[in-house]
Design a protein that fits this description.
NAD(P)-bd_dom_sf, globular, CDP_4_6_deHydtase, CDP-glucose 4,6-dehydratase, 370 residues, NAD(P)-bd_dom, alpha/beta, seven-stranded parallel beta sheet
Length: 370
Amino acid sequence: MTDWNGRRVFITGHTGFKGSWLSMLLQELGAEVTGYALAPPTDPSLFEAAGLSGTMTSVIADVRDYKTLVAAMRDARPHVVFHLAAQPLVRYSYDHPVETYGTNVMGTVHVLEAVRALGTVKAVIAVTSDKCYENREWVYPYRETDPMGGHDPYSSSKGCSELVIAAYRSSYFPVARLSEHGTAVASVRAGNVIGGGDWALDRLVPDLVRAFEAGADPIIRSPGAVRPWQHVLEALVGYVGIAERLLGGDGRFAEAWNFGPADEDARPVAWIVDRMAHSWGVESGWRDWDGEIPHEAGLLKLDCSKARTELGWRPTFTLEKAIDAIVAWHKAVGSGQDAHDVSVGQIRAFLTLRDQRASSTSRVAGAGST
């Protein structure tokens, strides 16, 4: 990672799970961070547990409120915008489709329109989802050029967001005229991110944490569903890497990018339950959900060959290591350790391991050259 000292960053959705980790990562790299989001979506929340309101400028407001968003962005004068604000839950989207589309689609329009109004932002990283693709339940991983789609309101809204991003890039921020308008826009699609400090409802790993802490058997729906699981820092480091390329003026990176795990880490839900129980030190007993299950994809994988080839990005953690890090985070914080210190410690350890592996790969490659 490069030095972010003096870089002003604007993050929408900073009070959420991913936004909180991204805020701490960028602060660790030296950035000046301003966040814009609704109040933390969970209680407890990583944002509050880590005391992030005291470490950054935090604007509590709705991404659907365009005037307030523009004013906040103008005050922050960012070099980079990371757009994470979203309604992120599939099952919630069935009951609240208007909120889901309003936040995920029009919220994206508002962010890009605010960037256009400001005229000084150098890079935009718009975060959507692996569920933006038209899922055909096939065994092949999805590439960035595959069609957008979505059976449920959440997935559909993320596909719509990608179309909005592509249209704004073509209409207002074309790569061919980057030297004129100065703003490069990329979209990023990650797999199922997991990590310490996620207390969201109706999400597998937080549900497991709650069950294990309570000494109860978790209730699991769709145990055979396969997802591209990865630690949250894997995706966030990828996002930051794209931002660094865009800040450097390389318009080739102003497009869509997948960030997902190695093929062997696309695992079924039941595997995650058993492996996390093992790491926690409890029996892996669980009960099937006996209620109605709205449609969710049974199989989803991402093709990340473009990020590996063109960005040099590769997963740092195995899935087993990611699960161990989650358990370590919750046990440390549960024992009274400071959530911010634990999180920053894991960020530093992750970046160190990443650098070591990159250095090792370079030495191996160099030894085979002539």
